[in-house]
Automatic annotation (TrEMBL):
One Pfam family in the UniProt entry: CTP_transf_like
Cytidyltransferase-like domain location: 16-172
A GO MF label: nicotinate-nucleotide adenylyltransferase activity
Domain of life of the organism encoding this protein: Eukaryota
Protein name: Cytidyltransferase-like domain-containing protein
Gene3D superfamilies linked to this entry: HUPs
GO biological process: NAD+ biosynthetic process
């Protein structure tokens, strides 16, 4: 997602200074999430070779769940100190999360107004694989039903690869003992295996197979 967003802005002559990854705290309470210290460790291992990305732990260290608007407020103050008052920030998210903004029970409408007008939303959409006989892949209308104010401040960035990869799917595959090689960075896989996260000790991919002894033959 971050690479797609950076390409989008660079192609429009907008400089991207850094990408910030902010994991939620344990108090978020989403089913399937492992402890935040493991998530931070996996994230850092995954981006260790990407100098423009960083993992920020402020949100993760909070004792209660922090609203997205407050997290953005915090990071905006930090980046203004680093890069200057005119530096902007975007909330990068997938289309599934952006669509939940229409649910008043999930988001405070005033928070969304503030996020949209003060920061803006960069929304990654996935191409939906075509059904048989239905033509090419399609892009869902993320902005459908949004107030005009929100539409104006939502930038839709199309993922150019048809895929159904998500963190939920990856966790489910690990629990079933399936391989996530080439989908998850090797550094993160090492941490998953080391801590036995997501029942991964049952995975045929992540199991520590014994090395076969070398068979020597003499002529």
């Amino acid at each position: 997602m971050l690479e797609l967003a950076r390409d989008y802005y660079h192609l429009r002559s907008i400089q991207v200074l850094e990408g910030i990854i902010s994991p939620v705290s344990d108090s978020y309470g989403k089913a399937g999430l492992v402890k935040v210290d493991h998530r931070i460790e996996m994230l850092k291992a995954s981006i260790k070779n990407d100098k423009w990305l960083r993992v920020d732990t402020w949100e993760a260290e909070q004792t209660s769940w922090t609203r997205t608007k407050l997290v953005l407020d915090y990071h905006h103050e930090i980046i203004k100190q680093k890069y200057g008052e005119k530096t902007g920030i975007r909330y990068l998210s997938g289309a599934d999360v952006v669509r939940t903004m229409l649910n008043a029970k999930a988001w405070l409408p005033q928070d969304i107004d503030d996020i949209m007008t003060k920061y803006g939303v960069a929304c990654i959409t996935r191409l939906t694989a075509p059904e048989s006989g239905q033509g090419g892949a399609t892009v869902p209308d993320v902005k459908e039903g949004m107030p005009d104010l929100w539409k104006k401040h939502t930038e839709v960035i199309q993922d150019w690869v048809v895929n159904d990869i998500s963190s939920t799917n990856i966790r489910n595959k690990l629990k079933k003992g399936c391989s996530v090689k080439y989908i998850v960075p090797d550094g993160a896989i090492d941490i998953i295996r080391h801590h036995g996260l997501y029942n991964s000790n049952d995975s045929v991919c992540l199991a520590q197979w014994p090395q076969e002894e070398e068979v020597k033959t003499a002529n």
